[in-house]
What does this fold into?
Amino acid sequence: NDDMIGKDSRHVKEAVKLKQKKYRGLQNKYIIEGIRFIEEGIKSSKVHYILYSSKLFKTSGYERILNESCPAFEVSDDIISILADTENPQGAVAVAEKNLYTLNDIKNKFIV
It folds into this structure.
């Protein structure tokens, strides 16, 4: 597939770095995996982009995350395996923005 991006693309390199806690903190981003979680991330406008492999098309609901509202790039199954924490990944991961909460945000939620 000519449209597939490889391990040297900036998107894949960034996602690999996000496996490290230090980099997640510095970039204020993290990796989401699984269709349901990626879909929630898209709804909350937190997803920057999706990396997916052909394995995704064997998973029901894949069409809900591959739409024009979010950039998506095809990668190999090997790259998905490197990025995913689950043993049998669904074939997609997303790079998303972390929610930043202050102590006051949290404190105010628990005061009745």
